[in-house]
C-alpha cells in the first residue's frame, strides 16, 4: 500500500538505517544508507557497536509514495579485502555505471574505502578485489561536478581513524591536534575517469572562519568531525559535516570544490542519539536534507532511522537552521 512519507518520520521502520546518501537517479530519489544491526553489546568511542555487515538500497518515487527497500545490495562476505564494519556509503553515476563507495576495516583493522559497481542504481553491486589504493578513514561522499569531474571527500575522527593519518601513513598511536591548533579537515581527491582509483593524492580541506583563520581543534561547535557532503548551489560549493561531540550538522562555502571553505552556520540542531549524518539533494524544484536519528529504537545510538526534511536557502545563499523536532 502506498503510504506518503511525512517529513521527520522514519522513511522505513522494518530495518534500522543511518548515514543516508541521497541522489536523484532515473527520476527517483535513491538513498544509500548504512544498515544498522539490531545487536546489543558494549559501546565505546572506537565505534565497535557499529558492526554493520551489508547495505540495502532504498528508493522513493516521490513523497506521495512509500519507500521501497530493494533488498541486500552488497554483503561483507563478498568483499575480498574487508573484514568488518560497513559504515556510511555513497553512490555516484558516471560512464552509464552506478558506483557504490563504502568504508570498511581491512584485515589489519585499518579503515579503507572500497568501490563496487552495478548497471542499476538499486544494485546488486560487484565489489573490486581491493580497496582504492591510497584510501583511508571513513565516510566517502562523491560529488560529480557539472564538468563531469568527480571528487571524493572523506574522513572521520576517533573510530574513523583520521588522526592516525596526519603524516601520510597509519600511526596507531597518533592523537589529534591540540585544542589551540588548526582542526583536522576532511580529505578530498579527484577520482580517475573510471571512478575506481584516485587521480591524485588526497589533500586536506581547510575550513576557515570569516576572517580566513583556520577553525581550531578546540572549537567543537564548528570543527570538522565526520560525515562530509558536498553539493553545489548557485555556483557555490557547500561542504557540510557533523561536529561529532557537539552533535550538529554545519556547513561552509567555497568557490572551489577543494576549498578553502568559509564556515557559515548550522543546518541541523542535535538529534536523538550520538551521531548525526546527512546528505543534501535537489528533487524537482525543492532541496531536501536526509538525516538520521535514533528515535525508532528509543535512543539507542547504533540503532538509527533515516528521515528527511525540506531545506531552505536564504537570498544570500546561506541555509536556514532546522530543528527537526519543532
Ligand atoms: O554509521 C557509522 C558511523 O556513524 C558513520 O560512518 C559516521 O558518520 C557516524 O554516523
TrEMBL record:
Pfam families recorded: Glyco_hydro_43
InterPro entries to which the protein is assigned, alphabetical: Glyco_hydro_43, Glyco_hydro_beta-prop_sf, Glycosyl_Hydrlase_43_Enz
Domain of life: Bacteria
UniProt xrefs under SUPFAM superfamilies: Arabinanase/levansucrase/invertase
Entry-linked CDD domains: GH43_CoXyl43_like
Keyword line: Carbohydrate metabolism, Glycosidase, Hydrolase, Polysaccharide degradation, Xylan degradation
Family affiliation: Belongs to the glycosyl hydrolase 43 family.
Entry protein name: Family 43 glycosylhydrolase
Amino acid at each position: 500500500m502506498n503510504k506518503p512519507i511525512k517529513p521527520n518520520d522514519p522513511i522505513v521502520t522494518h530495518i534500522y538505517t543511518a548515514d543516508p546518501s541521497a541522489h536523484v537517479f532515473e527520476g527517483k530519489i535513491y538513498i544509500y544508507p548504512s544498515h544498522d544491526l539490531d545487536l546489543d553489546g558494549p559501546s565505546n568511542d572506537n565505534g565497535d557497536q557499529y558492526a554493520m555487515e551489508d547495505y540495502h538500497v532504498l528508493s522513493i518515487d516521490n513523497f506521495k509514495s512509500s519507500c521501497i527497500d530493494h533488498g541486500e545490495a552488497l554483503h561483507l562476505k563478498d568483499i575480498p579485502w574487508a573484514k568488518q564494519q560497513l559504515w556510511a556509503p555513497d553512490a555516484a553515476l558516471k560512464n552509464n555505471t552506478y558506483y557504490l563507495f563504502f568504508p570498511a576495516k581491512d584485515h589489519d583493522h585499518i579503515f579503507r574505502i572500497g568501490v563496487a559497481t552495478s548497471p542499476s542504481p538499486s544494485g546488486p553491486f560487484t565489489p573490486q578485489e581491493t580497496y582504492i589504493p591510497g584510501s583511508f578513514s571513513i565516510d566517502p561522499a562523491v560529488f560529480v561536478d557539472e564538468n563531469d569531474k568527480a571528487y571524493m571527500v572523506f574522513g572521520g575522527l576517533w573510530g574513523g581513524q583520521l588522526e592516525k593519518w596526519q603524516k601520510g601513513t597509519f600511526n596507531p598511536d597518533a592523537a589529534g591536534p591540540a585544542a589551540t591548533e588548526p582542526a583536522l579537515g576532511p580529505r578530498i581527491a579527484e577520482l580517475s575517469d573510471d571512478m575506481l582509483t584516485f587521480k591524485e593524492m588526497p589533500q586536506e580541506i581547510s575550513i576557515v572562519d570569516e576572517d580566513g583563520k583556520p577553525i581550531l581543534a578546540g572549537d567543537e561547535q564548528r570543527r570538522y568531525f565526520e560525515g562530509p557532503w558536498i553539493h553545489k548551489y548557485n555556483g557555490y560549493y557547500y561542504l557540510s559535516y557533523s561536529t561529532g561531540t557537539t552533535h550538529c550538522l554545519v556547513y561552509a562555502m567555497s568557490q572551489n570544490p577543494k576549498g578553502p571553505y568559509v564556515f557559515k552556520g548550522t543546518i541541523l540542531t542535535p538529534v536523538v542519539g550520538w551521531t548525526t549524518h546527512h546528505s543534501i539533494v535537489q528533487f524537482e524544484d525543492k532541496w531536501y536534507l536526509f538525516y538520521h536519528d535514533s528515535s525508532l529504537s528509543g535512543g539507542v545510538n547504533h540503532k538509527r532511522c533515516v528521515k528527511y526534511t525540506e531545506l531552505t536557502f536564504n537570498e544570500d545563499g546561506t541555509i536556514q537552521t532546522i530543528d527537526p523536532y519543532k
